[in-house]
Write a structure and sequence with these properties.
The structure is a single chain. The chain is of the alpha/beta class and 319 residues long. It contains 9 helices and 12 strands. It has a domain of 223 residues. It has an 8-stranded mixed β-sheet, with helices on one face. A hairpin with a 3-residue loop joins strand 11 and strand 12.
Length: 319
């Protein structure tokens, strides 16, 4: 399934179902030592018929999905992403969700938690610890490290970075699952049938936004098929928009719905979108993520940021 497959997404109009469809097709951002997101085959959705049928059923009766994910806009992006995965692993034909947000404690101190533990319904039923993250990073053409260093990829708030997230996963989240405290928690949660074996996976979709008209390489260990977008300063928007086809339409995306683009019938023309951006940057200035639809070319993600962005750049991981 190609990135931003418009025909695939446009089949469903319900926003949470569209986000679920996006999640099922989105590649991971990174290729690390651990296997990536559960495959469609392992979810029991390996054929187009099975995948479409599953999503059609969610669209026909979305009450359970809505209840689990909450009201649109009421959740933080990371929490919303977690709940989508909880729902998916609980309802997909090939998997069974065993536990989510499993606290790992040492005495009265909480050391962390395991995001999800699930099992296959058929074949190898060894429990799988699935660590979750969803990230949208902007690349800096100049900054800390080499051009392909993960320290060059930062969040819009200037606090988070790809390097910090990767270090946290490698040094804390995945090793935590093998600690005695975690194994005690797993034994309690999974019951006497658990034989002590545990697989691990990482689901980390998102988008890496490359600077407009300032080429830079992908970060080290980026997944070859990761979703790509562009970012530019507000002052450069007129020049950027002038190069777009007149038929281009778009919308800005509000958290937590940064996953699937909105249905095409909800998009604005470029003039109306530019007016909304002008009003926004005249008063607020917070970075805005856009989804632009170009007839014949599909979707493009764009982040528009203040002209003085970034105001701060996070330090790389210590040690």
């Amino acid at each position: 399934m190609p990135p931003y497959d418009t025909d695939f997404l446009e089949r469903w109009q319900h926003p949470q179902v569209r986000d679920l469809a996006w999640l099922l097709s989105a590649p991971d951002l990174l290729s690390l030592a651990w296997p990536g997101r559960p495959t469609l085959q392992s979810l029991g959705l390996g054929s187009r018929q099975a995948l479409h049928g599953y999503l059609d059923r969610q669209a026909e009766a979305p009450a359970m999905l809505e209840a689990m994910t909450g009201e649109p806009g009421a959740s933080r992006l990371g929490h919303y992403h977690e709940r989508l995965w909880q729902y998916l692993l609980q309802t997909a034909p090939g998997t069974r969700l065993r536990v989510h947000n499993l606290a790992v404690t040492c005495g009265r101190r909480t050391r962390g938690e395991l995001d999800l533990v699930y099992q296959q319904r058929l074949g190898d039923t060894t429990p799988v610890h699935l660590e979750l993250a969803i990230k949208f990073y902007l690349g800096l053409p100049s900054g800390p490290g080499r051009p392909n260093a993960p320290t060059r990829w930062i969040g819009t708030n200037g606090v988070d970075s790809l390097a910090l997230k990767q270090a946290h996963l490698e040094r804390h989240q995945f090793p935590l699952a093998h600690s005695p405290d975690a194994r005690d928690a797993l034994a309690t949660a999974l019951g006497p049938s658990w034989q002590g074996r545990l697989q691990q996976r990482l689901a980390m979709p998102g988008v890496l936004f490359y600077p407009w008209e300032d080429p830079m390489p992908a970060p080290v260990q980026a997944h070859s098929d990761h979703y790509r977008g562009l970012w530019l300063h507000w002052a450069h928007w007129p020049a950027f928009a002038a190069r777009l086809d007149d038929a281009t339409r778009g919308s800005w995306l509000g958290k937590p719905h940064w996953l699937a683009p909105p249905a095409r019938r909800h998009l604005l023309g470029l003039d109306e979108l530019a007016a909304c951006l002008a009003e926004h940057f005249a008063h607020s200035g917070a970075p805005r993520q856009l989804a632009l639809y170009r007839p014949g070319k599909g979707w493009q993600r764009v982040f528009v940021v203040e002209d003085d962005w970034p105001r701060q750049i996070p330090l790389g991981p210590s040690g």
